[in-house]
Structure prediction request, 424 residues.
Amino acid sequence: MGRQQHGPPPALRRHHGRGRARTVPGGAAQRALGHPLHAGGQGHLGGTGPAGRPRRRRGRPHGLPGRGPPLTAPPARRKGPARHGRDRYHRPVHRETAWSPYPKIPANTRLGEARGRTWVAHEKIHGANLAIVCDAGGAHPAKRRELLGDGGLDDFFGVGRIWPALAVAATRCAQNLREATGAAPTAPVTLYGELAGGHYPHPDVPAVPGASAVQTGVWYAPDLIWLPFDAAVTDEDGPRWAADRTLRAAAAPAGLHCAPLLAEGPLARLQELPVLFPTRLPGLLGLPALPDNLAEGLVVKPAGESRGPARSMAKSKQPAFAEDERFDGARPYQAPPEGAAGVPGWLLAHGTGLLTPARAASAVSKLGPRTPPGELAAEIARDATEDAAHELGGLDEATRRALEDSLHAGALTLARFDASDRHT
Prediction:
């Protein structure tokens, strides 16, 4: 008799994008650099506590953005053979998230000059294209042509290692963009970026355990880092491309580094920029320089806001890039059996989705406004893990601890954002 499928009952279905997740660069390297996005978090949504007392609901109340229908306790598990790995627990069903891939950037194209238009040139990052779609259901990662599925946070260069903090930061950046552009609070925002780093061959920079180079030949950071280079805010009139300055102003307070800006001005001047130059990113991250660490090239695009799916832009690469094997030496990433972040990607995505501003506010209400961010983060992570366990029908102790640990960087990011909001 074949094994039965154990999908969740309708009461457990959450409204999230496939491979739901929300995130920000984190990890040991960013801690060493004093990166603002290091945290962990968790959450709790109902059920009963000790002695049968009703648990206070936390997280996003029903009816607010990112909150699905009220959840009920899962039914008792069916009898049968023990389940392992990702089949062990009841898992939420995700809805598809609407998004559009980034337009292909033509190479060495002469763009038509528009009278009075200002352009920007930014460094082209040698990494892997990773977009983050932020909507009412949360933050959802996507590779170049499709949203990441359940295993994507593990399989896509181990991005799950930084996903909780990255998702929280991306959500914050999207919120800043909505406010800057006058969009609705739940308007979908797609942040287009590049996942890079994972290795930095300098004797004074220690390697980050578990990190693996996304690409080779251009070295950026010892840990993974995600850099947005463009963004689109969608409303009833369709997508609106954010101005470059607007994106950078939204990303910086969220703790995100954009692709390094090289120049701004008339197109004719930008098209004369050299394509052979050292990468600017390590210096921006406070890392010591490496010899012959040349950038992949540059991208030129309009500096201001524009409407419609098309995007006028062009890229130029350094001449040796296509022929030199140094730039194509990365090996396929193999996630460890327990997942890149210590838990399966689908579970990490589910827990990350519980890292919300309302949960941070609940932790502050419980512990007090003067509680250090680290202590608030521990409470947020513990609370989110408790919620995830309740929603999924329970987690064994080892998995629960691993999930709580993996969420801490995201929870710390959330706690710092909450503190910033309370002091402004």
Observations:
- The longest helix spans residues 163-181.
- The mean pLDDT is 80.
- The longest strand covers residues 224-235.
